[in-house]
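Table S2 (text version). Query chain:
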Amino acid sequence: MKINLNPEVDPQTKIIVALDFPSANEAISFCDRIPEVGFWKVGLELFIADGKTILQELKARNKKIFLDLKLHDIPNTVGSACRVATKYGADFLTIHASGGKAMMQAAQAEIQGSSTQLLAISLLTSISALELKSDLQVPLEVSEYVSKLVFLAQSSGLTGAVCSPHEVANLRSQLGNDFCFVTPGVRPAGAAVGDQSRVMTPKNAIAAGANYLVIGRPITAAPDPVAAWKQICQDLL
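Corresponding structure-token output:
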């Protein structure tokens, strides 16, 4: 399945809802509460708990899958893991750009010919500018560091990246419309920020140049998830 880098006007095509649940049963139950959602994210917790089951159930429902494993290891290990992961039929699969060019090239080589597109994780949206410099000892501004990682990913053959919506506008102007940007750290106005440091509203993130928005707790933890989903879609019109 080829991912559309310019989703239709329908805002529902732009949102990937994070199935951050500890079991496949809970995730499937939630998925079936909002059948209009066409794209779901499966992260580490759910994948480790029961990855095969949830991925099969999502495919049976004709849903697109963002398999967010954030792989980071030596090139041979990540390449092999990506080859195995393509068998699940995920549309997106994430690896860390900080793993380096050789690792990303090995991963890209292993997914060739599959329906899976690799996305490079740049800098987690939970990491602030202060943490980048003081804890990680990276002497760069967040935007500069993210840009370097995204351009490294592109030069390694990847055609998409995950980054904060705050970095998307500048990168979009340099990489054009053929590069796919998926943005976490998206929160509706007034929603709790939680453990995210670099956030933006859904409408502003799309305006900045994001192709897809990953939204979790503002929907999954809402008192009325269906209403929350519909409101976010309405806000994107």
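Notes on Table S2: The chain has one domain: 11-235. The chain has ten helices and eight strands.
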